[in-house]
Amino acid sequence: MNNNKLNVKTAKRLFGYIAGQNKIQFALVLICIFLSTMANVAGSLFLQILIDNYIEPLLLEAAPVFDGLVRAILTMAFIYAAGVVSTFFYNWLMAGISQGVQKRIRDKMFAHMQTLPVRYFDTHTFGDVMSHYTNDIDTLRQMVSQSFPQLLSSCMTIVMVFCAMLYTSIYLTLFILMTITCLILVSKKVAGKSASFFIRQQKSLGDVNGYIEEMVSGQKVIKVFCHEDEAKEEFDKKNDELCRNASSANTFANILAPITMNLGNLQYVLLAVFGGLLAVNGIGGLTLGAIASFLQLSRSFTMPINQMSMQINAIIMALAGAERIFRLIDEEPESDDGYVTLVRIRVKESAPEEYRRVREAGTGGGDELPEQIPAEFVEETVERSGIWAWKHPHETGEVTYTRLTGDVRFFDVDFGYEENKIVLHNVSLYAKPGQKIAFVGATGAGKTTITNLINRFYDIDDGKIRYDNININKIRKTDLRRSLGIVLQDTNLFTGTVMENIRYGRLDASDEEVRRAAKLANADGFIERLPDGYDTMITGNGANLSQGQRQLLSIARAAVADPPVMILDEATSSIDTRTESIVQRGMDSLMKGRTVFVIAHRLSTVKNSNAILVLEHGRVIERGSHEQLIEERGKYYQLYTGAFELE
Amino acid sequence: MIKRLAKCIRQYKKDSILAPTFIVGEGALEVVIPLLMARLIDNGIDKGSISSILQIGGLLVICCVASLTFGALAGRHAARASAGFARNLRHDMYYKVQEYSFANIDKFSTASIVTRLTTDVTNVQNAFQMMIRMAVRSPILLVFALFMAFGISPKLTMIYVCIIPFLGAGLFVIVKYAHPLFERTFRTYDKLNTVVQENLHGIRVVKSFVREEHEQEKFGEVSCSIYKDFTKAERIVAFNMPLMQISVYTCMLLLSWMGARMIVGSRGMAGGMTTGQLMSLISYAMQILMSLMMLSNFFVMMIISKASAERIVEILDEESDLQNPNPALTEMENGAVSFRGVSFSYTKDPAKLCLKDINLEIRSGETVGIIGGTGSAKSSLVQLIPRLYDATIGSVEVGGRDVREYDIETLRNEVAMVLQKNVLFSGTIKENLRWGNPEASDEEVIHACRLAQADDFIREFPDGYDTYIEQGGSNVSGGQRQRLCIARALLKKPKILILDDSTSAVDTKTDALIRKAFREEIPDTTKFIIAQRISSVEDADKIIVMDGGTVHGFGTHEELIEKDNIYREVYESQVKGGSGDE
């Protein structure tokens, strides 16, 4: 029941998409379908007229005159022509409408997906989300372009034919209503049975596909262990199960057509007998001609019903798909109440000396520079002035400009991915502009979590995070993230050239800037050795590159973005130590003047940090420089000397 | 191609033949039924004869029941045949993939194999079902209906004969213009999927660089080109229905006009045309043209599934490039390994060698460390030992015999390898470990885990050895996964054990314990250890330093420190960075 209600809601919403966008076009489609249906129904009525009004009387005449017949046929030809033209028009219009609906839904879905919080992607598998764009949209296409107009025209046909039937004979109409009800009940039963098997088939198809995915992905391991036979055995079991379910599901689907068709035929016979009896016994004032035409009408009546029953499966599947799509579109987007924005500024010539000094210093810079610049000395600009500032409108209407320097502080931060499951307890830390802060600890200690809070992938439960002395909740998310560069352990590259991939960090970077960034990350060497150098196409997340090379590219990508704060989450884990020590040099120059957060497995990577924070079970248990921590002989010392296991 | 696919029908041959056979019956009845219906009107209703109504009605009921039976049987067999055909296809492909060598798998790529086994099979299954139902039904209906119509009036049948080529040509033109557009949109769809997929995987990158709009633009571009092409294609297809209607309506009008004249003209004469016959002719017109329409749909479907069928056949026809020798050695004497003038290329192209002229002698029971930079072909070197790939030039010998002389299963059971890309499968820890040896007792499993230093953490899990591993081993950490994979390999009790960077996520201390356990517990096994860390290899009997596909240095730690500049550099970079990098 609940399910039905949901379907109705989804259907309504989908209808809104179909009809809503271009109302005139849709109205035209309705009119054209109406005309086309009319022509079709007129065709089946015409036969009777032809026989009753023309052929029969002509048969009685000694010298038949065909003038009337010619006129009738010409009239009919005219109606048909109108029908054909309308048919063409609505099909033509519908092609545009159905593709438009698809495009709008697709675009909306993708656009909305971009606004969803990272949490959404944690809780939904990629395969599931992907299938919205493939399977669900595809069934939708079939429904909108085929089932929908068919449904409309079937409904119209039914109404028109029903009127004609009522006009011909009320008794027979009642009779036909009864038989039609039976027909509908039977096909509903079969369709229901078929649907339940289809669901089972879908489930075991998912099962088999999942198994194939897992096994083929691990195919090399299977080979190394000569485990082929076992892998085959399990596969056969699942495959046979799928075969059984698919066989049943399709059997019912295939049977539906002969059943409805022949029930329609049976109804025809019953009607003939019943009508014949009525006519012969003179009940209801039926003429024989009327019965004959009624029989024709009854065929025109059952035909669209059959067609509708064929479409039911497609429609149910499409509605289920549409519902899944709408669920994605209705998903709550990432909230953003930030009003502090990041702007490029220029300090006016008229400003006092202390503010003008900012101009030379650029981003970052020393402590002696003023943090805030009064609004009267500031000029916002779109050019690359080299100075970024947080534009902070206050309630009083006053606007202040705070220089972007990269000062990050945590005050007693608590956080949990799920409610009641706190993973970070009471974390406080500070990173002054230009400092390198490292996080060390076992997997699950909360290192990555901390960095995810700085860029607000997740929001903290308690405490405060301040960025350049502004509460990060007040900063607009896009601006906050623009000021942070991030290199993740799982590198993600996009299909496109090497150049485009690096430029992803800053879209307006020139080729020269891209090359410079690549040189900085020490990626230049291997890029030049690629077949097409910087124009080499990267496909399949860089399948043609080694993991180490991918990491170098993503470092270059962050370098070109040139942000004041960088987060390196195991950014060099797959680069061999010899290469790393070279990269490290590049990284050091990259990190110069920036606030950097580093997460690394290799302690050699973090040794030269200004502060190292050792995390355990979401708490900071030690902090200090390398020397201080060695001195302390705590956990860090144990890790460093290899006396303790890190995971 | 069709022949190759037809081979997969096998035990469903009966169903595949029965289905169309029943459809012939159903089709025949479908033609007879309108004829009887016309009779019912002519002889029953028009003449007001209840007895004829009952008689013909009875006959009709029998026909309906028969048609229903045929239809149902056809449906059942068609469903069974197509489901079975798909089952066999999947079965054959999957079995074939199991035979593949590493080179074969690389050639197709995992993702492509999976698509072929899933989406493509479904496409072909649908096409097959349509084929055994429609491919017979439509021509049968066409022929029957034409035949019957001819029986009624050869002259009027000429109308159909004129209209059919017109409709056929029209449909052909539509398909011809629409098909390339459809093909193009399907290819664009692939692009769209790539954009979505990359966006999903890289959502954190997208968000941190605030590239949402950029991504939307990228998506919008592809989406728009799909919209344009698809609309164009569908607008061409929009000619289908009106074309059909023109044909039907023209038939009807011509039939009405000529039929009426014939009826009136032949009135009273025996064998003259009746109104009932005229109506039958009109139903046949519908049937004939409908079946033509079906046929054209069928061809479109065939063309669409052709690409899928080709991709399936590619999998089936791919020959594994590793053949089991005959006769094959099933015993391995010892774990000695030697490389004799080995060069290797993944593409078998001597110009693109990734290993060049390797000569090495390793005695049974030795521990060999292998070290080298990213891309120095360390993995390629060891993959030749269990014959995951064959050497392009030269030979690899194990236990004094060329690896190509061994039975592959024997060879791989004796040479255990822990791959760089470790994979655990969904199932309990114990089940995963028993991949190494299905008959291993619990004690043996635990012993192997002790050696791999995995026993402790396994016991800490609530379910111990029965802990369920999620797909891909996502619920254990990287270091734990590596140790489980080592334990799994140890259970084979191999003569040669290869660890391809398999302790990178394990801390130095545990790493040392694992090596100690190897030394003490399996001294006779030859061990190859590829590592990034000098500490993992420095106590090995021999160390190979790889550089750019060649052996740059070969000797003990002390010798290499002395002679090999790369080794010395790596050593210094790591010692300077702290004694351990963990």
Automatic annotation (TrEMBL), chain A:
Alphabetized SMART domains for the sequence: AAA
Boundaries of every ABC transporter domain copy: 408-642
Keyword Cell cycle on entry: no
Subcellular location: Cell membrane
GO cellular component, one term: plasma membrane
MF term (GO), any: ATP binding
SUPFAM superfamilies: ABC transporter transmembrane region, P-loop containing nucleoside triphosphate hydrolases
Positions of transmembrane segments: 26-51, 71-93, 151-168, 174-191, 268-295
Entry keywords, A to Z: ATP-binding, Cell membrane, Membrane, Nucleotide-binding, Transmembrane, Transmembrane helix, Transport
Chief localisation class: membrane
Residue intervals of the ABC transmembrane type-1 domain: 27-317
Membrane-protein topology: Multi-pass membrane protein
Official protein name in the record: ABC transporter ATP-binding protein/permease
From TrEMBL, chain B:
Topology versus the membrane: Multi-pass membrane protein
GO MF, any single term: ATP hydrolysis activity
A GO cellular component entry from the record: plasma membrane
Compartment(s) of residence: Cell membrane
Membrane-spanning parts: 21-41, 53-74, 134-152, 158-178, 246-264, 284-304
Pfam families documented for this protein: ABC_membrane, ABC_tran
ABC transporter domain segment(s): 337-573
Keyword set, alphabetical order: ATP-binding, Cell membrane, Membrane, Nucleotide-binding, Transmembrane, Transmembrane helix, Transport
InterPro entries reported in the protein's UniProt record: AAA+_ATPase, ABC1_TM_dom, ABC1_TM_sf, ABC_transporter-like_ATP-bd, ABC_transporter-like_CS, P-loop_NTPase, Type_1_exporter
Keyword match Ubl conjugation: no
Primary location recorded for the protein, binned into one broad class: membrane
Protein known as: ABC transporter ATP-binding protein/permease
Organism: Lientehia hominis
Lineage: Bacteria, Bacillati, Bacillota, Clostridia, Lachnospirales
